[in-house]
Design brief:
about 100 residues, alpha+beta, Alpha-Beta Plaits, acylphosphatase
Length: about 100
């Protein structure tokens, strides 16, 4: 396994709390782009926000830490973190 692949991590995050209508998705995109993370973020019908983030292990760890605190105008009560197999994601989109 190459070092680049060893250092790659992909996660699915689901945030609960006051996470919709507070700029969470836009701030997630800003954070992801600043950290060089690929993936996407979207509002779910159940009031939560779902994200897939892939990139350098340390960068993904920083993104998870940011997601636990959430945006300035909202808050995160719970953050589910599930590791996934990395895949060919490029860029970070708001869906």
């Amino acid at each position: 396994m190459s070092r680049a692949v060893e250092n790659l991590r992909a996660v699915r995050l689901v945030a609960s709390g006051r996470v919709q209508g507070v700029g969470f998705r836009w701030q997630a995109r800003q954070q992801a782009r600043a950290l060089g993370i690929d993936g996407w973020v979207k509002n779910r019908g159940d009031g939560r926000v779902e994200m897939v983030a892939q990139g350098d292990r340390r960068a993904v760890g920083r993104f998870i830490a940011w997601a636990r605190s959430g945006p300035g105008y909202g808050y995160v009560d719970d953050l589910e973190v599930t590791d996934e197999e990395p895949r060919g994601l490029t860029g970070f989109d708001v869906r």
